[in-house]
Amino acid sequence: MNWDDTSSVTDDTQAGRLVGAAADGEDQAVEAALRPKSLDEFVGQERVREQLDLVLKAARQRGATADHVLLSGAPGLGKTTLSMIIAAEMGAPIRITSGPAIQHAGDLAAILSSLQEGEVLFLDEIHRMSRPAEEMLYMAMEDFRVDVIVGKGPGATAIPLELPPFTLVGATTRAGLLPPPLRDRFGFTAHMEFYEPVELERVIHRSASLLNVEIGADGAAEIAGRSRGTPRIANRLLRRVRDYAQVKADGVISRDIAAAALAVYEVDARGLDRLDRAVLQALLKLFGGGPVGLSTLAVAVGEERETVEEVAEPFLVREGLLARTPRGRVATPAAWAHLGLTPPRQATGGNGQQDLFGA
């Protein structure tokens, strides 16, 4: 399976999960209504907002286009929203595309040649762009020029095409996959961090107001605690809890209502869903806490290897419930405690060596 195929599988799986960070069609439509329209409205990412505000204000004072911007971080943290805010703050139109959609240099040339002066080009998942298009982008970003190749073989001719000044906003979930020549051409780079629960509570209260949903402080806190540090997930959970409150209660979201609703959707107190718990249960009950190979673990839960590695594991590792070791995946003491299971007196691997537990 090549890289694009793997990403497609994991993106589809993420979008199908209530706690998946990828956005499906419904999420995209709702996000458009809930998105903040300015940096002042944007919740969280304080350092990034402060730095970006300086970049944009300086560009406006000079009467110039803003420097190219690279935003990295996990899905659902606000990269697309910030790109739209950049365009709004600069009073410029925005063009949105993605790396997988640009498989040939001609695809990129067609987009670049149609840009207006000062326009913002948002390129999502920029690390998945084809290499020929990537090399064309180098010159476009630096010199606002591209060479269009006409013909083939020895008779091919390069025709230079001048471009109006524009701002490229690149977004990536895997900054390490960007080649240095491309990364170095961005004038401003920012890494988006996961949100703290108190920040997610502010996001939830703002979204509830826009959705005309009555929610208490304890209800917002309950949803925030299960949102995996991601605003997109927080908004998705809010909508599902709203549905439950509308059908099963008086429409007001309290802590008890939120907890009952999320229990129906199988999202537990730490934000783990069915897939996450299946991985942990297999690791603990079938393999004694590990270590166990990824492929074996994937077969045990009936999922593709890539799904377990790219969809479930990142959150489990970040929560300290699972560890990746050279010998395989190993459960931590926190995993045993979370599932209410008692670890063996000494959790060992297949060769009898002690892993994470003392005697």
From TrEMBL:
<comment type="function">
    <text>The RuvA-RuvB-RuvC complex processes Holliday junction (HJ) DNA during genetic recombination and DNA repair, while the RuvA-RuvB complex plays an important role in the rescue of blocked DNA replication forks via replication fork reversal (RFR). RuvA specifically binds to HJ cruciform DNA, conferring on it an open structure. The RuvB hexamer acts as an ATP-dependent pump, pulling dsDNA into and through the RuvAB complex. RuvB forms 2 homohexamers on either side of HJ DNA bound by 1 or 2 RuvA tetramers; 4 subunits per hexamer contact DNA at a time.</text>
</comment>
<keyword id="KW-0234">DNA repair</keyword>
<dbReference type="GO" id="GO:0006281">
    <property type="term" value="P:DNA repair"/>
</dbReference>
<dbReference type="GO" id="GO:0048476">
    <property type="term" value="C:Holliday junction resolvase complex"/>
</dbReference>
<keyword id="KW-0547">Nucleotide-binding</keyword>
<feature type="region of interest" description="Head domain (RuvB-H)">
    <location>
        <begin position="269"/>
        <end position="359"/>
    </location>
</feature>
<protein>
    <recommendedName>
        <fullName>Holliday junction branch migration complex subunit RuvB</fullName>
        <ecNumber>3.6.4.-</ecNumber>
    </recommendedName>
</protein>
<feature type="binding site">
    <location>
        <position position="76"/>
    </location>
    <ligand>
        <name>ATP</name>
    </ligand>
</feature>
<keyword id="KW-0067">ATP-binding</keyword>
<dbReference type="GO" id="GO:0016887">
    <property type="term" value="F:ATP hydrolysis activity"/>
</dbReference>
<comment type="similarity">
    <text>Belongs to the RuvB family.</text>
</comment>
<feature type="compositionally biased region" description="Polar residues">
    <location>
        <begin position="1"/>
        <end position="13"/>
    </location>
</feature>
<dbReference type="Pfam" id="PF05491">
    <property type="entry name" value="WHD_RuvB"/>
</dbReference>
<keyword id="KW-0378">Hydrolase</keyword>
<dbReference type="Pfam" id="PF17864">
    <property type="entry name" value="AAA_lid_4"/>
</dbReference>
<dbReference type="GO" id="GO:0006310">
    <property type="term" value="P:DNA recombination"/>
</dbReference>
<feature type="binding site">
    <location>
        <position position="35"/>
    </location>
    <ligand>
        <name>ATP</name>
    </ligand>
</feature>
<dbReference type="GO" id="GO:0005524">
    <property type="term" value="F:ATP binding"/>
</dbReference>
<feature type="binding site">
    <location>
        <position position="79"/>
    </location>
    <ligand>
        <name>ATP</name>
    </ligand>
</feature>
<feature type="binding site">
    <location>
        <position position="80"/>
    </location>
    <ligand>
        <name>ATP</name>
    </ligand>
</feature>
<feature type="binding site">
    <location>
        <position position="185"/>
    </location>
    <ligand>
        <name>ATP</name>
    </ligand>
</feature>
<feature type="binding site">
    <location>
        <position position="80"/>
    </location>
    <ligand>
        <name>Mg(2+)</name>
    </ligand>
</feature>
<feature type="region of interest" description="Disordered">
    <location>
        <begin position="1"/>
        <end position="22"/>
    </location>
</feature>
<keyword id="KW-0963">Cytoplasm</keyword>
<keyword id="KW-0227">DNA damage</keyword>
<keyword id="KW-0238">DNA-binding</keyword>
<dbReference type="InterPro" id="IPR004605">
    <property type="entry name" value="DNA_helicase_Holl-junc_RuvB"/>
</dbReference>
<keyword id="KW-0233">DNA recombination</keyword>
<feature type="region of interest" description="Small ATPAse domain (RuvB-S)">
    <location>
        <begin position="196"/>
        <end position="266"/>
    </location>
</feature>
<dbReference type="InterPro" id="IPR008823">
    <property type="entry name" value="RuvB_wg_C"/>
</dbReference>
<feature type="domain" description="AAA+ ATPase">
    <location>
        <begin position="65"/>
        <end position="196"/>
    </location>
</feature>
<feature type="binding site">
    <location>
        <position position="324"/>
    </location>
    <ligand>
        <name>DNA</name>
    </ligand>
</feature>
<dbReference type="InterPro" id="IPR036390">
    <property type="entry name" value="WH_DNA-bd_sf"/>
</dbReference>
<feature type="binding site">
    <location>
        <position position="81"/>
    </location>
    <ligand>
        <name>ATP</name>
    </ligand>
</feature>
<dbReference type="Pfam" id="PF05496">
    <property type="entry name" value="RuvB_N"/>
</dbReference>
<keyword id="KW-0347">Helicase</keyword>
<feature type="binding site">
    <location>
        <position position="232"/>
    </location>
    <ligand>
        <name>ATP</name>
    </ligand>
</feature>
<dbReference type="InterPro" id="IPR036388">
    <property type="entry name" value="WH-like_DNA-bd_sf"/>
</dbReference>
<feature type="binding site">
    <location>
        <position position="329"/>
    </location>
    <ligand>
        <name>DNA</name>
    </ligand>
</feature>
<feature type="binding site">
    <location>
        <position position="195"/>
    </location>
    <ligand>
        <name>ATP</name>
    </ligand>
</feature>
<dbReference type="InterPro" id="IPR027417">
    <property type="entry name" value="P-loop_NTPase"/>
</dbReference>
<feature type="binding site">
    <location>
        <begin position="142"/>
        <end position="144"/>
    </location>
    <ligand>
        <name>ATP</name>
    </ligand>
</feature>
